[in-house]
Specification:
Blueprint (H helix, E strand, L loop, with lengths): L6 H8 L46 E2 L3 E2 H26 L5 E6 L5 E9 L4 E14 L2 H9 L9 E13 L6 E11 L4 E10 L5 H18 L3 H12 L1 E2 L4 E2 L3 E8 L8 H10 L1 H12 L6 H20 L2 H10 L2 H4 L20 H10 L6
Antiparallel strand pairs: 1-2, 3-4, 4-5, 5-6, 6-7, 7-8, 8-11, 9-10
Helix pairs in contact: 1-9, 2-7, 4-5, 4-6
GO biological process, one term: protoporphyrinogen IX biosynthetic process
Protein name: Coproporphyrinogen oxidase
Keywords: Signal
């Protein structure tokens, strides 16, 4: 499933979910599964799902060199980054406010909060989600992992924590933005990071796409020389609609299975910097375009393009499909859907128009950076 547990796959598994802070009622979720005990070296056992467990003298080394405190650090990071994203989005929008939907998985296996804004000035719908879950690998997922060389068996315990967001703009000249970061580990096996960020414009401003890609190229090259090109291609390849022979947007970056970096630096640090760049990479574009006038014809085009966005989610996104097969929270899985969409028979743009130019770029990705 998109390299087993990738962008929306993890979202489907845990319901594209979110958690801002572990509510008191969720404290019982924090007990680690058997074999995952953290010792007194874990400093934040007051609320952390990953750290509340019986102690092991001196702490226990887990999962490819990671300590329990590092898993806990990632959990706390995604909680923090969600809060930061919500604050920045509400300040920028000036009208919309995010509601909270707190939830718990059955059998004390996870918690989260889905946060959604609807009817804002800039964003017609925006969602930012965090989740922290654990469980046991199914036969299918274990087989998929094993096919990629990972040591995984049916019934192995896993831990996963993720932050994901999607912002659907009210104006057709402001692009839609989707991004996520996630961490997944298997008891006694590997732990790895994944994530990405991509832009879906309805009207193409070359300078905006270039600035967006340059932003993430800078982060990628800082942590691993040459990584931007492979992460960009991965993004282009994944967000593709075969039936339409076009890509969903102008792309960005997409990475997965990141357990180490060539120079020995921390993959967690890279994933954190990607997440910290979500709003700085997107808000300048949204703020620059939000006051621009648009016509009803442009709005109609936006709704048609949103139809393609939903086509990808429902037909090709492996995580969404997995979630809708009964493994995830349907409301949280579908929170990424645009608020309003349209389909029109043979809605082909006239040659020479801006709509036609966009379609040309979606058919053949550019090297923006």
């Amino acid at each position: 499933t998109m390299r087993v547990l990738s962008v929306f796959t993890l979202a489907g598994l845990i319901g594209c979910c979110c958690a801002f802070t572990s509510p008191p009622s969720v404290a019982k979720l924090c007990a680690a599964p058997a074999g995952w005990a953290c010792g007194p070296s874990s400093p934040r056992v007051g609320h952390s799902f990953s750290a509340r467990a019986g102690s092991v003298p001196g702490g226990r080394q887990l999962l490819g060199g990671l300590k329990c405190s590092e898993r806990e650090e990632w959990e706390e990071f995604v909680l923090h980054i969600q809060k930061d994203i919500i604050q920045k989005a509400e300040e920028a929008d000036g009208k919309g406010k995010f509601i909270e939907d707190r939830w718990e998985r059955p059998n004390d296996t996870g918690y989260g909060i889905t946060r959604v804004m609807e009817g804002g000035n800039i964003w017609e719908k925006a969602a930012c989600s965090v989740s922290v879950v654990r469980g046991k690998l199914s036969k299918e997922r274990a087989a998929a992992m094993s096919s990629r060389g990972r040591d995984a068996s049916e019934g192995d315990a896993y831990f996963a924590a993720a932050c994901s967001l999607v912002f659907h703009s009210a104006s057709p000249v402001v692009p839609t933005f989707r991004s996520d970061v996630r961490y997944f580990e298997v008891v006694g096996g590997d732990g790895w990071y994944g994530g990405g960020a991509d832009l879906t414009p309805y009207y193409l401003y070359d300078e905006d796409a270039e600035a967006f890609h340059r932003f993430y190229k800078g982060i990628c090259e800082k942590h691993e020389e040459g990584s931007y090109a492979k992460y960009k291609k991965w993004c282009d390849d994944y967000f593709y609609i075969p039936a339409r022979k076009e890509h969903r947007g102008v792309g960005g970056i997409f990475f997965d299975d990141l357990a180490s970096l060539p120079d020995g630096s921390s993959p967690m640090a890279f994933a954190k910097e990607v997440a910290e760049g979500f709003m700085p990479s997107y808000l300048p574009i949204a703020n620059k375009r939000k006051e621009e006038a648009f016509t009803q014809e442009q709005r109609d085009w936006q709704l048609l393009r949103r139809g393609r966005y939903l086509e990808f989610n429902l037909l090709y996104d492996r995580g969404v499909r997995f979630g809708l097969d009964g493994q995830g929270r349907t409301e949280s899985v579908m929170v990424s859907a645009p608020p309003l969409i349209a389909w029109r028979y043979r809605a082909d743009p006239e040659p020479g128009t801006e709509e036609h130019r966009l379609c040309g770029v979606l058919a053949e990705p550019r090297e923006w950076a």
